[in-house]
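Thread: "does anyone have the structure for this chain?"

Original post by V.I.:
We have the sequence but no experimental structure in hand. Need at least a predicted one for the grant figures.
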Amino acid sequence: MRPVEIKKDIWWVGVVDWNKRNFHGYSQSPLGTTYNNYLILDEKVVLVDTVDKEFASRTFCSIAQVLQDRKIDYFVINHLEPDHAGSLALAVERYKPEKIYTSPMGEKALRAHFHASADWPVEVVPSGATLSIGKRTLHFLETRMLHWPDSMLTYVSPDKLAFTNDAFGQNMATGERFADQVDRAVLRRAMAEYYANIVLPYSPVVLKTLSTVADMGLELDMLCPDHGLIWRGAEDVRYVLEAYREFALQKPLKKAVIAYDTMWHSTESMAEAIADGLMDEGVSVRIMDLKANHHSAVMTELFDAAALVLGSPTHNNGILPLVGNLITYVKGLRPQNKIGAAFGSFGWSGECVKILTQALTDMNMEVVEPGVKAKNVPTHEALGQCVELGRKIGQAIKAKVGE
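Reply from O.Q.:
Generated one for you, tokens below.
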């Protein structure tokens, strides 16, 4: 991709990764992603973030097209995760900046990631620090744990623009650079998928940061994340800020996710019967076989759902590995305001429902009990119990979120 001027003398010099599907080894990115970094031309030239090391040559090419015969004076590093700082060492060697500005926690992360950085010209900028670069002033705001301890937001005045690193981003590989150029429904889903699988555990920090930004009275008409599309114009900025507030509050919809693995289809038939009961109560249902659905896809659906219904056969006195994997993943993301329920089939020992119920309890979900378990192939009576469990879950959902 060629560089794109996003405001007068402020350029996107990032990279589109059209083929990215496995994001950080734990989440899928079905639409690809981008690694966004930016170049500001003023009395001082500033590079904001870098890109994944694999794509260093591409961003250097874009930077060269913008720089012409000028040099880069300063780096601003908002976040040290390797997809944003992976090519930092190569950039330092190439451009030899006068200063590298980063947050207090960013300096610690920089030293830990780049062991040869002892002689780099690093300068720490805590929250509230400013830096004049000519006509513009950079304002630094620490956003610790949004989503790493080193995370920082850089606001540019008078351009009313903020570089937000991983906040407000999406995993979308597109030829467009701005959010208003793509379908809003597709964008909204990509935002939710990104938030559910990456930002969700830090929702209290999101709310605190939104309040801090509001209290600072910053004028904003452009938000530039490090992944995905750029938000431009006051209307779109309001939209994404409000979307993040809604995401962080985690108010569920009248919706349930049934996630299960099955050995000989008995647990699968139970899942479908539970879904019937939920639908009898007017609840939207998403049935997700874990052999067909990645755990991050389940988490995306669960994000706005009121209930997680887990199913597994008993296997070696436990549960099937894909269900255990999902439990570990969801527990780490700490979703709030959820109802839980368990079901499963068994051949002889039958621990599955007990194990699943305990897992849901450990995630602080309101568990609808008793769960249902069926020996070998579920009978009509057992499937009837599943339908009834679905109805009970549906009633609990309506009591929680309303009719």
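V.I.: this helps a lot. Residues 256-398 form a domain with the Rossmann fold fold (CATH 3.40.50.360).
O.Q.: and The two ends are 49 Å apart (CA to CA).
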